[in-house]
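Hey, resending since the last one bounced:
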Amino acid sequence: MPQFSLVITFYNQRDFIRAAVESALAQNPNLSKEIIVVDDGSTDGSREVLEEYRDAVQLHLLPSNRGPLGARNHGATQASGQYLVFLDGDDAFMPWALDVYERIIADWKPTVILGQMRWFEGTMPTVKAEDVPHQIQFVEYKAFFLKDRGVNLSASTYIVDRQAFWNVGGWSEGIFQLDLADISAKLGLMPTVLIRSPLTVFYRIHKGNSIHTVPPFIKNLYRLLGKERAGEYPGGQEYKMDRRVWFGGLFAFWIKRAVRAGLYKDAAGLMLTGWTMVLAAVVRRATRVIRGRRPIETMNLL
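The C-alpha cells again:
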C-alpha cells in the first residue's frame, strides 16, 4: 500500500494540465505514492494531452461530467494509499509538498493535514534553489473544531487519511461551494495538523475560479447550517460551542464578501441568521488574544 494517493481532477483545463501533472511527477521519487488523474468529461481537447501521461499515471476518463466532487470521489475510489492528497487541475504542487506531508505524518500521524498555498496569476512561478525549505512550522490540534488559527481551505492543500475520508462518506456531492467547510466539519473531531510554512501548493487565480461568484457560497452556507441543526456534524453537546464558533467565522467571512459584492440583502440575511454565532466567534477570538493561541512548533524538514 503506498503512503500517498495523489488525486488530480480536471474539467476543460487543457491550458493547465501539464503543470499539474508534471508537479505530481516531480515529487520525491523515494516516497511511496501513486498518481491518479481523473478527466471529468472534458470537451476542450484535454484528453489528448492527458493521454501522453498514460504510462506514468493512472488515467481515468469519465464519460460525462460529474462535477468536481464527483470526480474527486471517483479518484478516491481508485486509491489504495494511506493518505489522499487532492489537487485541482488548475493548481500545482511545489516540489517539496510530499516531503513536508511525510515528515508531519511520521511524527504526528494526524487524520487531516491542512497545507498552505501561494496565490499567483499568469505564468507559474519559478522555484529557485534558495526557495527550498529546511524547516516546517505547524500547529497540532486534537480536533479540527479546536483550530484557533485561520486558514484558506482548498482541496489542493487538503490531505486526509483515506479510511477516515470514507468513514464520513467522502465529498458531499452537490455542495461544491463550501465543500471544504463541509468535509472539515464531518471530520471535525479528527486530529488535525495545520502547516504554517512552508507553502506547498501553487494556487492559480483565473476567471474560472469559483470564489469569484458569491451567491452559491451563501446558498451552501445555509445548507451547512441546516446540516448542523439536524445534528449531522459530530461532537454533540460537548463540541456544540466549538461548532458555533466555527460557523460564526464562516458567517462573518461571507457577510463581508456579500457586502463587497454589493449583495446587501444577502448580507443582512446572513447577519440576522448568524449573529449569535458571529458573536460567539468574536468572544472566542478575544479570549484567545488574552490567553494565547496554541503555539507554533518547528521541526527540520531534512
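Residues 212-291 form one domain.

Sorry for the duplicate.
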